[in-house]
Amino acid sequence: MRFRFSILLCCLANVLSQAQSAKPVSPSAQPGAGAEKLVGAWQLVSIETVGPHGDVTYPYYGKHPEGLLIYDRSGWMSVQIVSDPKPDLPNIDSRAAILAATPEQKAIAVEGYYAYFGTWTLDQSASTVTHHLRQSLYPGERGEDFMRQFSIDGDRLTLIAKVHEMNEEHQRRLVWKRTAPPQ
Question: Residue 54 belongs to what domain range?
């Protein structure tokens, strides 16, 4: 638990640092009409990969990952996901420790974690939200636009991404629950 919290704090500090040094969001990058329904923090409930024949698998994050998705009113967004099982590196509890870790320990940490941030826009008529990535744990994703179909049912947000992997077309379905305001 201490390791997960340390990694989360480190990543949040990096995201905030990058966001503060990034250019302000231009009016054209504002979320758009109807965005208020997405604004806020969302806790991950599940991630499923649905195959072309309806088969459901959990290839990357396991059956019980944890995560946080944040959309703010000014047009910024951030997402973080920790896989199940959680990375277990009890002696890695600081940035200095991860920098001094073995390549195997670093691989365990990276394989069990995913994060990116950027801006977001909403196309309410198409029921899509697009994440415009500024930074990502995976350098090749920087500058990419990730479009997701979205639906909201009560306090649940479902995002669906179309992906081509394992030589087939799949849908990645992420279900999020709106978090309660901090007390």
Answer: 2-178
Residue where the block lists tokens 């394989």: 111
Dihedral sign for Cα 91, 93, 97, 103, please.
positive
pLDDT digits (tens, 9 = 90+) for 14-46: 443 444 444 444 434 567 778 899 999 999 999
Measure Cα distances from 101 to 9, 31, 86, 91, 106 in Å. 18, 40, 18, 9, 6
Q: What is the pLDDT of residues 48-75, one digit of tens each?
A: 999 999 999 988 899 999 999 999 999 9
Bridge pairing between strands 168-178 and 56-57: unpaired
Would residue 137 count as lying in a domain? Answer: yes
- Structural domains of the chain, count: 1
CATH number at residue 15: 2.40.128.280
183 falls within a domain: no
Q: What pLDDT shows up at residue 23?
A: 45
- Examine residue 80 and state whether it is found in any structural domain, yes or no: yes
